[in-house]
Amino acid sequence: MEEERIGKIVKYFARIGVAAIILEKELQVGDRIHIKGHTTDFEQKVDSMQIENKSVEKAGPGDAVGIKINDRVRPNDVVYKVQETG
């Protein structure tokens, strides 16, 4: 499996389990992401994504997106897109 850096965490909303991510590359609903940081390291599928409280199917460089995530993250954790190889 290959990974490509696509953005970083800017904020985490613990009460609702949502991470705000500034994207450097395109991300789509259904993509698999890997979030890695000092104490963070997990993978998950992107089930939904929002920009300014509106659901979107995909977003691109410079967009700030909110994604519901399965585990705690911290600002400056790096977000990678996992590419299925083969």
Explain briefly what this protein structure is.
With 86 residues, the protein is mainly β. Helix content is 0%, strand content 56%. The chain has strands at 2-13, 18-23, 27-28, 32-36, 41-45, 49-51, 54-55, 58-59, 64-68, 78-83.
What features would you describe in this structure?
With 86 residues, the protein is an all-beta fold. Helix content is 0%, strand content 56%. The chain contains no helices and ten strands. It starts with a strand and ends with a strand.
CATH superfamily: Translation factors
**How confident overall, as mean pLDDT?**
96
Q: Biggest sheet, open or closed, and with what strands and sense?
A: 8 strands, antiparallel
Estimated radius of gyration: 12 Å
CATH topology, what is it called? Elongation Factor Tu (Ef-tu), domain 3
First-last Cα distance: 9 Å
Order of strands in the sheet with most strands:
5-4-10-1-2-9-6-7
Unreliable stretches:
none
Count of folded domains: 1
Helix content: under 10%
Tell me the overall shape.
globular
Order of helices and strands: EEEEEEEEEE
CATH architecture verdict:
Beta Barrel
Strand content: over 45%
Query: What CATH first level would be assigned?
Result: Mainly Beta
Counting helices, strands and paired strands, the structural category is mainly beta
**Number of helices, counting only DSSP H or I runs of 4 residues or more:** 0
